[in-house]
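User: Structure tokens for this complex, please. No commentary.
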Amino acid sequence: MQKVKPALLRGFDQEYLPQDQLQFNRLIDIARRNFERYGFLPIETPSAERREVLTSKGGVEKEIYALTRLAEADDDEAATKGALRFDLTVPLARYVAMRERELAFPFRRYQIQRVWRGETPQARKGRFREFYQCDIDIINRDRLSYLAEAEIPSVIYSVFREMAIGEFRIRINNRKVLRGLLQEFGVAQERSPQVLRILDKAEKEDGARLVEELEREGLARGAAGDLFGLVVKKRSTQETLAVLAPLKGCAQGLEELAQIAEAIGKFGVPDAAFAIDLGVVRGLDYYTGTIYETMLVQYPELGSICSGGRYDDLASYFTDTRLPGVGISIGLTRLFSKLKEAGLLQPLETTPAQVLVTTMDPRYLDRYLGVAQALRAAGVNTEVYLEQARLGHQLTYADRKGFRLAIIAGENEFGRDVVQIKNLTTKTPRDVPVSDIVSAVTQELR
Amino acid sequence: MQKVKPALLRGFDQEYLPQDQLQFNRLIDIARRNFERYGFLPIETPSAERREVLTSKGGVEKEIYALTRLAEADDDEAATKGALRFDLTVPLARYVAMRERELAFPFRRYQIQRVWRGETPQARKGRFREFYQCDIDIINRDRLSYLAEAEIPSVIYSVFREMAIGEFRIRINNRKVLRGLLQEFGVAQERSPQVLRILDKAEKEDGARLVEELEREGLARGAAGDLFGLVVKKRSTQETLAVLAPLKGCAQGLEELAQIAEAIGKFGVPDAAFAIDLGVVRGLDYYTGTIYETMLVQYPELGSICSGGRYDDLASYFTDTRLPGVGISIGLTRLFSKLKEAGLLQPLETTPAQVLVTTMDPRYLDRYLGVAQALRAAGVNTEVYLEQARLGHQLTYADRKGFRLAIIAGENEFGRDVVQIKNLTTKTPRDVPVSDIVSAVTQELR
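Assistant:
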């Protein structure tokens, strides 16, 4: 028979073996648990939205995947008007606008789902066409306290600390400070978004070229270099505050930034884990207050693994209600691919594969099954080897799948009412009475 | 500003409020935990596959959503050759064929992801265009023991028992028995698939009309009625075995069915939870041994909530390796919508919303945050109300979000080094020393 080649689509190719999938799921579970610890509740939204919903903010059409039917079909809205979401923020805005009266505000939600973007895939940069985003947002009606902005880093901190991905630093800045800086340097209001987008590249691209780009936006040669230098230079939080203090245009932003930086400490984030950094710029127009990036201290080349900011109005395209909010997003697929590459994934403390009950003599099926049921009832993940195979083959399977213990028993053992427990790490076997199996196994697994 | 209407696409509309999403996530967590307890490992596959992969088995094109770009784009395989998966079995076949050498066999995998089908949405039947499937399969190379078929019901049993969705019954049949029956009734080999599809509708559609359909497939009037009657009649397992015993064509299938039914009991499934039932037919061609359906005893009208079967070769379109397997699928979105409708969702034992620390006096921010940090460190989900609002407003928020306890404190309380813990269910408040807060709260939550 003519075979179809089993292959994946370019950019839709972050598919893991089970051991890696377990690692990935561990990261998701840690995120969920920590988000819930802080009072965030889960939502999921459909993969496809109405096209006019997705494009309401404008400017993203070129990256959107639309749906169509493979064969002709009548009356399918999804195929004529639907497209896949490219982020979780637009669906959130639509969700809140639709369900405003059913939600309790401040609305704190987390959402961990796949998104799709027609970008050029670059595995080296961790850029794919299908990937997970992991978002939290706090949305309120009409007003939102600066304390919400101050709380976000404590959530990020607790997530990454538990993920144990090495030393990290949450860097914050404030859009009002950046606007003030641009004003001080005489950047015209209408040029600001473009200037911010240039400055956002300061840590990734060639400085001389970016200074030239700034000049093309109307900055004088010296001013462009000064602005660039101010943004890109690494300073302590105190030094940064001192540098900004004389700049009148930054006064309001600076006060806010200092206030939030102080509150971040009160929310339990240690000083070493965060910093004010003027190099945090973020490309997106709609941020208006605190902006966040998070770097791995040992691997700055990975770029920001968690970014976001404060915005003034989430859903202005859908509703007249003013919905200020603050949120961050972890690009989980990219983070995972980078952690794996850098060898930063922790070994799993518990795996689903704990005990394999081998079956060397089919006559004892009932007893093998009885052992497995007793272990499962005690919360131990237990698999029975159901095929007929030599014991050596069964133990090879146990090793490949990562089981920690094997139970081995035949006539010799059951005749004495014992089973052998073999520790697959230390390779040591010991006999235990069948009646003690649960306590012996749970002890061995500890 | 002209607003965009915040609305969903027809069939892409199973979107929940956070309280329902928590319930849905609870079902997923139960499935995951039980699957892992039995040695199944997780995989996820990309949402989009190559079109020739999805259509390799043929006959499904008309329900497939393909991808396209909303705006012109160069060099995007996904947009020219990609489409969304319509089930989790075809991606599994592609996955196993691609990674054959990296997997340990028997390969036991679970997969809980969304699938997309261009069917006509019918909320009444729980039929949507985007929905979750929750699958397990056991795949081996070359041969697969009947014990794998016997184990599947024990996994289903443990999942639904923990979900606590009321009494359920796992009904099994065997394709070899059905083939034997058809042979006894003189159905030509090439008519078998169509006859099976007709019999599969026996419990849902009008009997007289189905008997006519059977006649159109070549059965004589009397024979069609007899076959229909045999399949549709409810009997005990023993009665069914007795009815089939004299039929020579069924002998092999019957022996297998009886053997598997006996083994199912050994795997720990109580007699009351399963039954042999000739009415289990399943429409799909490729099943070859045991087939499964699961019904809620009190709500037979919901139809099967978990179905599957044994097949002889998973991935013949992709590889020459013979990969026999057995698997079942839970249509989780449909199950959830039906459970909700029938009022069968259990109240959540724990919710993310456990304690709300109210903030009636901003001067005590540090102390509010300190209380919250202590509680979180003890594993209690704790939110601090960060906006400035009257206490009554904060308590209304606590009620709406489902918090179980509120911490209330101001000058009066902190002056005496106590806080008030208010149980939001019983409405009773009590003062506890700040130093005892963790033990008092954990005790109250028990």
